[in-house]
Amino acid sequence: MKRREEMTFLEKIYVVEIFKGLTITYGKLLKNLWLHVLRALGCKTSEAPGVAIQYPNQRRAYPPRYRGRHRLTLYENGDVKCTSCFLCATACPARCIYIEACEHEDPNVEKFPKRYEIDTLLCIYCGYCVEACPVDAIRMDTGLHPEVYPADPRLFIEDKETLMERSRILEDYGPERLYDMHMKRMQELEKVIL
Ligand code: SF4
Ligand code: SF4
């Protein structure tokens, strides 16, 4: 591609370019307004008007493969499925999973994580940990965005209990309740910050 080095006289004085920009912006605005009015009056239009989503209070439905925040899956009795094999931590390119393995008092049970932590400030949400897990103990199917915590990096480390609690809420109340709780925390934090 040949790059044009010099601006023309009309480009140099900017006025024409500003006018062109405003024409595009207001043209879109008026067209959108017109389409909304027609729809409100019950007319069918071939083109749908543009709609702004008031994110984060509104959101589009995420596809099932959306990689959200992590959770540790549980057995029916509430025990964590993780066997502390370290495969997720080994696969993690950001090195943000910390596991401390522990022997279970029941000899029939494999090891379990005494500590399992994810530093969400380092995580790049690649999903390699989920792929690596041989027992489906970690998932990213919560539909949640990365959490925003108060300005202390230590608070961004999500521990085993937090990751297990997400599974419990998902199981008991479903993904919408999990998202509502997440949004409530975000709004409370916003009030503190602003
Ligand atoms: S999503 Fe990727 S970066 Fe985040 S914990 Fe899993 S493997 Fe590590
Ligand atoms: S989450 Fe899965 S891969 Fe990671 S330590 Fe536990 S069992 Fe192993």
Describe this structure in words.
Helix content is 38%, strand content 10%. The chain has helices spanning 9-12, 15-40, 87-91, 128-132, 160-173, 175-193, and strands at 71-72, 97-102, 112-119, 138-139, 157-158. The two termini are 47 Å apart. It has 194 residues and is of the alpha+beta class. The protein folds into two domains: 9-40; 71-193, Alpha-Beta Plaits, CATH 3.30.70.3270. The protein has a three-stranded antiparallel β-sheet with strand order 2-3-5. Strands 1-4 form a two-stranded antiparallel sheet. It is elongated. The longest helix is centred in the first third of the chain and has 26 residues, at 15-40. The relative contact order is 0.13. The site of one iron/sulfur cluster has 13 residues, from helix 3.
Average residue pLDDT: 90
Approximate strand percentage: 5-15%
> What is the share of helical residues?
25-40%
Radius of gyration using CA atoms only? 25 Å
Q: Helix/strand-derived class?
A: alpha+beta
Bound molecules: iron/sulfur cluster
Report the order of strands and helices. Answer: HHEHEEHEEHH
CATH class of the largest domain: Alpha Beta
Widest sheet, order of strands? 2-3-5
Morphology: elongated
The largest sheet, given as strand count, sense and whether it forms a barrel, is:
3 strands, antiparallel
Number of domains: 2
The appropriate CATH architecture of the largest domain is 2-Layer Sandwich
Total beta-strand segments: 5
Termini gap:
47 Å
Question: Summarize this, please?
Answer:
This protein has 194 residues and is α+β, with helices and mostly antiparallel strands.
